[in-house]
Amino acid sequence: MPLLSMRLLHTFSVVAEELHFGRAAERLHMTQPPLSQQIRQLEQLIGAELFHRTTRSVSLTPAGRILHDRARKILQDAEAAADAARRAASGSAGSVAIGFTASSIYGTLPRLVSAFRRQYPEVELRLEEMRPEPMLEALHADKLDVALLRPPEKSLADPRLAHSVIARERLVLALPIDHVLAHLEQVPVARLDGLHLIGFSPDQAPYSYELCQRIFQAAQIVPHVVQASILPTMLALVEAGVGAALVPASAQATWAGALHYRPLVDTEENTTELYAVRRQDLRNPAAEKFIDLAGMPGGAPREP
Question: What is the pTM for the complete model shown?
Fold first, then answer.
């Protein structure tokens, strides 16, 4: 049997609601003869009479009542589907796959996710913590829409990617409670020379590792790196007394451990930047809304 058109179902539904061809024709902005012709066409397609017609009244047949119930649901579903498609096209519905590094959870990610969910409650955010290199690979493989990370320098030059700074902050020195430097209000960078330090892993946190190396080289110092890891583990090791660590300032607001944090002075290299990175050919409107909210492109970077 040929598929019924939405136009015929809509025409039938209006007649079924009015039970009067004249009033139905007015609602449909048409004359009565073509309306009657469409109803006959529908009856021929179905193979059943849908209306009892007399000179005084119009009523639904049993087949007409069944079709009216089903047609109403079909038309409602069709309108809902069209509305959902419009919302998806505008970015107010859909899903966004977001990768993030451990360091982004300190301030930036909670603020951003909370604000986005309030503004776009119908968009599903699929969040996955990843290391930078696998995250960039997932972007290229179209498995992620957006990556929140501190990427290696080579990635920022990749012509296939677009990126923007969404947060800037300074590194601070995290110290055990009883550390010899804890009495200082701020720590000169020269005091890091020979200091037992927990550093960033060059494999798991290459951006932060490279930043720390620039700080050390500019100050001509060589700390004694006793362990290399990623941020949460670094803070845990500091609390355990293994050594000190240079960490983003936002970490001190969320780490519950008993630590001292001191500003680092006498260095101009001491700024870490968090990026939102996406493919140049991104075609997900909801992801573009997320990026806009994060400050990309053209948004002012924010301090976490």
Answer: 0.68
Model confidence over 156-204: pLDDT tens digits? 888 999 998 888 889 999 999 999 999 999 999 999 999 999 999 998 8
Q: How many residues does the chain have?
A: 304
> Is residue 279 within 8 Å of 201, Cβ to Cβ?
no
HSE-up (13 A, CA, CB side) for residue 39: 26
What burial class does residue 11 get, using C-beta atoms within 10 Å of its C-beta: 0-12 exposed, 13-18 middle, 19+ buried? buried
Q: Which residues of 87-115 are buried (b: 16+ CB within 10 A; e: fewer)?
A: bbeebbbbebbbbbbbbbbbbbbeebbee
Phi, psi of 21 (to 5 degrees): -65, -35
Domains of the chain as residue ranges with CATH = 6-89 (1.10.10.10), 94-167+273-294 (3.40.190.10), 171-270 (3.40.190.10)
